[in-house]
Each structure stands twice: as C-alpha cells, then as structure tokens.
Design brief:
By secondary structure, the chain is mainly beta. About 5% of the residues lie in helices and about 60% in strands. It is built from 3 helices and 22 strands. The longest helix is centred in the first third of the chain and has 6 residues. The N and C termini lie far apart (about 60 Å).
C-alpha cells in the first residue's frame, strides 16, 4: 500500500460529543441528561424541554484549547508507506537519506465554539431549536530545528449541528422528546516539507452534510428525584472534496514501486457519526443543593477509514481500514448549590476514556489519552436574564513502551439566556 495522503479521521474523535453544550451544564461535569432544564436540552435530552415554563433564547461562546505531546515526534517515514503509517496520519514521506523523525514533539489547538438556541410553547408542545458546534479544531505542527530541513503541518475543521426539537408531557410525571440535527462537517489540511534535495507539499479540503436523530425520556419520581435517558443515532456523513500531492523530484520511477507523479483528484470520505446513548439521575438532596450523575456510551468501534478517489494514482490510493478504536463509557458527576435565588454555583467531574487506538495516534492525527475532567462554574439571574460562566480542565497521559503521549485541555465558556 502506498499513500502519503490521509483522512485525519482521528481528529473527529469525540467531535459529536465534545465537552458538551452550555456553561451551566458543562460546569456540572456534563451530568445533565437527568437535569436538562434549559435551552441546551436540545443537546443533552430533548425530553427535558417539556419542563420549561417560559419561552426563551440563549447563546454561548466557548473557547477550547489543548496541548498534546508525543515523545516520538513528527514522523518522516521512508516510502512506500504502510497501513500503519496511514492510520497514524503520517503526512510526510522520504525517498531515503533523510531523518526518520523531526524534532517537533508538541502541538497546540485553539478554537472558538459558538452556539445559539431558543424554545417556545404551542398547544401543549415545547418547540425548540438552535445551531451549535459540538467540537472544532485548528492546530499546526512546525519544526525548523534540523539544518537544511523545514516541516509544517496544519489542520482545521468543525462540525455544526442545526437542530429542531419537540417535547411533550405524556402524563403528570413523564415527558418525551425528539429532535433532528442537520450536521455540517468540514475539514482542511496542508503540509509542506523543504529538504536540501526536494520540496514536498500536500493539501486537501472536504465538506458534507448528514442527518442525526435524537430521542429522549424524562421521568419524575416525586419532587426530589427525576431520571432521564437519551439516544442519538449514528450515521455516515459523505464528505466530498479535493486532494493534491506534489514533489519537486517528480516524476520519479522506482523499480518495483512505480512512477511517482504530482497528483490531484476529487475524493469522497465517510465520516462516521457514532451512536451514543445514556441515562442520568437528578436528586434534590436539599432545597438548595442538586446532585446529578450520568452514564453515557459511545460506539466508537464502528469507526472506519474509508476514502475513494475519483482518479487513483500511485500516491492517492483508495483506503478502507479498521483503525481499531474502542467503544467507551463516560461517568459524569455534578452538583449545583443555589444559596439565594439569584446565584448558583456548579462543580463536577467526569472521566473520558481513550477511544483512539495507539496505532492511530500521532501529532498529525490525534493524541488521545484517558482524560480526567474537573469543572466549575457560576450563574447569576437578574429579572429576565441569566448569565453563566464555566471552566473545564482535563489532563491525561499514556505510556507505551518508550513513548509518552500527553494531552492537557481547557474549555472556557460564557453564556446568557433571556426569558420571555
């Protein structure tokens, strides 16, 4: 197998279920399936919309940042590339006589994530909708430390969900809800290597749409306990775009290998949106204290690397690989304390196990780890307004042989909601 083009599939790990939506919910560790009592229920549990009494609109802005570290650095393997190189997202390739690794060990990610939504009531139904980016990314890796060599890689992308939801009380203690997301995904990447004997570059840009369904249930057990459940369908989003690879030494014929050319082609890529589901519990332990807990499951083992080029070449080849990802369960815990009606404070914790296989981890793909999230926030309500601020911090480290993989992430969110 030969290809120096990769899909960057791993960058989407968690993309459909990132830190969450809304600073109040995420400050409670994302343990919000059994709470879902504001407009962000369009993400957490649409059945929760039925418990809202007013009409309202809300908006949030999050800034997600992360630093990742790979002690093996930025790879520069010898052609032909193997399936392992493709799974790792190795974007550079050498013909021999170059260093097998560059010295870049770290990458920084930073991206704003906006969201807006609202809800109202109509003939016993609660109608809601909004647009939100569950996760995005923008990062680059650069190395100029080796005399005569320069390597750079940049990748950007986002997922935008456009939601319409409806909820209804089917009894005094039970409500149901459903929603649909029109999902728009886009990803762009470029790489450039300048060496004494050659200059090599590649680029790709792709985008596409898909539909995702959401179904929720909320049950109230007296005035102190309520429970919720949510199910989100999975689907394949068909992305379409263009890719190109060029090298100053091409065309070059290698016996038994083929003739390497500057190549470009349109291509299609399947982006797998995994099935997710979960249950949550809210306990009003005291008049001023709410405790919540969630269990959420994501079927990552269905992930595939699947690319089909309109015109195959020696470098641009079709790919259909199983990256070996594992399905994960998240356990989330949160608390909200409301000492006075106008002020409330939230704290939380959740564990996000590693889904990405070690074979898929690299600075140009994704560095994942078993992450522990610690969260906190504050809310203030004044007349028809509510203001929320939240912060998440996560850290994780994996050691595989002599290889250290580290990820540290923060998520700062602010939001406001207006009630009619």
């Amino acid at each position: 197998m030969v290809s120096s083009f990769n899909s960057n599939h791993g960058l989407w790990a968690g993309a459909f279920e990132g830190p969450g939506l809304g600073p109040r919910a995420t400050s409670m560790g994302g343990a919000f399936i059994g709470v879902a009592d504001d407009w962000t229920a369009i993400y957490w549990n649409p059945a929760g919309l039925a418990q809202l009494k007013d009409s309202g609109v809300g908006m949030t802005m999050e800034y997600l940042s992360a630093r990742v570290h790979d002690s093996t650095g930025l790879a520069n393997p010898v052609a032909p590339l193997t399936s392992q190189n493709i799974l790792r997202g190795d974007t550079f390739v050498q013909l021999g006589g170059e260093p097998s690794q560059f010295n870049a060990l770290d990458s920084q990610l930073g991206v704003p994530l906006p969201a807006i939504g609202g809800y109202t009531h109509w003939h016993g139904f609660t109608i809601a909708g909004g647009s939100y980016a569950p996760l995005g990314f923008s990062f680059d890796v650069n190395d100029n430390s080796i005399p005569g060599y320069s390597a750079s890689f940049k990748s950007q992308g986002y997922i935008l969900n456009n939601n319409l939801s409806v909820a209804h009380n089917v009894g005094p203690w039970v409500s149901i809800g459903a929603g649909v997301n029109l999902v728009h995904a886009e990803i762009r990447r470029t790489s450039l290597k300048e060496a004494p004997a050659e200059t090599q570059s590649s680029s790709s840009e792709t985008s596409g749409f898909g539909l995702q369904g959401l179904f929720g249930l909320m049950a109230h057990f007296g005035s102190k306990v309520q429970a919720g459940a949510v199910y989100r369908t999975g689907q394949d989003i068909d992305l379409k775009g263009n890719a190109s690879i060029s090298d100053s030494v091409f065309p070059l014929t290698i016996p038994g290998f083929g003739t390497l050319q500057n190549e470009s082609s349109g291509f299609q890529q399947e982006l797998r949106n995994p099935t997710t589901y979960g249950v949550g519990l809210l306990w009003r332990a005291l008049p001023t204290v709410n405790l919540s807990a969630d269990w959420q499951r994501t079927e990552w083992d269905a992930t595939r690397v699947n690319l089909q080029f309109d015109t195959q070449g020696v470098l641009l080849q079709n790919q259909n690989l199983d990256p070996g990802w594992q399905s994960t369960s998240r356990y989330r815990f949160g608390m909200e304390w409301t000492p006075v009606p106008t002020w409330s404070f939230q704290v939380g914790y959740f564990r996000d196990p590693r889904a990405v296989s070690f074979a898929s981890e690299a600075l140009t793909e994704q560095i994942d780890a078993d992450l522990h999230y610690y969260t906190a926030g504050v809310s203030y309500r004044f007349k028809h307004w509510q203001f929320n601020v939240g912060e998440q911090y996560a850290a994780g480290k994996e050691v595989v042989g002599n290889r250290d993989l580290v990820k540290i992430a923060t998520d700062t969110a602010i939001g406001t909601e207006y009630f009619f």
